[in-house]
Amino acid sequence: MEETDAAIIGAGPAGLAAAIEVARAGGRVVLIDENSRPGGQLFKQIHKFFGSRTHDAGVRGITIAHHLLEECDRFGVTTLLDTVAYGIFAGNGIGLAGGGRTWTLHARRIILAAGASEKALPFPGWTLPGVMGAGALQTMMNVHRVLPGRRILMIGSGNVGLIVSYQALQAGADVVAVVEAAPSIGGYGVHAAKIRRTGIPILTSHTVKRVLGDDHVEGAELVALDEGWHPIEGTERQVPADTICLSVGLTPLTELARMAGCRFTYVPALGGHVPLHNWDMQTSRDTLYVAGDIAGIEEASTALEEGRLAGMAAARSLGLLTEGDAASKKADIRKRLVSLREGPFGRLRRELKEPFMKGREITHAG
Amino acid sequence: MPAEGIGKRGYCTLEELKGTPGCPGDERLCRGAVAVIECLQEIPCNPCEEVCPHGAITVGEPITNLPVLAEDKCCGCGLCLAACPGLAIFLVDVTSGPGEAEVSFPFEFLPLPEAGDGVAAVNRNGDIVTAGTVLSVTNPQRNDRTPIVTISIPREFAMEVRGITIPHRGKGQR
Fold first, then answer.
1. A305 to chain B nearest CA, in Å?
2. Is B129 at the interface with chain A, CB within 8 A?
3. Is A353 on the interface with B (CB under 8 A)?
4. Are A51 and B43 in contact (CB under 8 A)?
């Protein structure tokens, strides 16, 4: 029987940070990812991160990924790539598949850091070649160095839509417009300003009515929306585009937490169904932790801090850290998380997460 | 939620910028090169504070505070331009020559312009407002691949111009 102290599912920022903290404390760690390369979305994040200068703000996501991988190496984290964790079974057995075989890994603690998937938006023509997630465009451009189109229309003005639009322009494509159904831009003003000064319009209170083109994208018909988000007849206009990108939100990848029997809460602004967890990132199953987008859609910087919290809490519960040591380290991280969730953009997430994170009662109720 | 105009337009107007804690006053502008911090929303970010060797930028706690420029401490070195992850800091010098001004901004696109190039200078809305000349393009290692372009423009556009046209932008539409 294969066994380990901690298994971490997902090698993005949250999973890497969790792996580092358990391994730093002396635990045996297996880090599992279905991709052929660790790092999650970080290798697509060629822009400089916001946050606190003492914690990697101003550093590009790709650089942060390299630092985290070096730390994993230094502390002896075992990484299984091209390996799918397809289930969690009795006794914390994790069903794994990869390299043409399946097997079960037993872990005393499991940290789920599976991340999120992109939401879609159906409209006439949305299945045509050339309509894709903004994340897909970002992967093709920044990881595989392929530009799938020359004239890109971005749907959604959250930070993902704004950043990927900027990166498409950096990659040599043109961005026809960013379309936003809400009356105001979703992402940071500084991200919006970066693309606005290149002349890219951001059309608020607009949506895409249909795709133009029979067997591939040739453009889109846009329409203005009224205050009730209803299309205003007669405002239709056509824009040329060969690629339409959707950046309309993310959904936590919670299947394994469901299968493990974790209790959930439903918070639309955090991406939907989210496993209940406390400030230790512990779920209602006390040997199972969550971190990153699976615990509510946020950003890489908060995912990193949540991963550190989960890793430290798991290490403490394994007896690898003293209570005093763990408590002071966790207090520092919580303080950073609170400060990352200040301001008009982060405050909502903080207000939504903190009520259910406060009590420890959920941890033994499941 | 976000500041009114920026949330709608995607950029701030000069009127919205003036009087914010990161914007130098007219009197300071007339004394030479100074940082103009166009960061008007409370987001968790403070690299500008850390990078300034003269303590001219303060964010403090919480880190969502807007950066405050101590305009008398700012010597116009421009280190903050490449440190700002939002590319929201500019350097403006209205004393460079009679009727002229120099504006420096981060420019992360290829091909990079070269010193001496004639360029079309754009405002925050991406509209071409005047012609300019590139004075320098710097990209030392500490900038981590954020080149800083300095252009010379007529003085009256010093607080309007925030970039130059990007060659391939808009080409796809023709």
1. 14
2. no
3. no
4. no
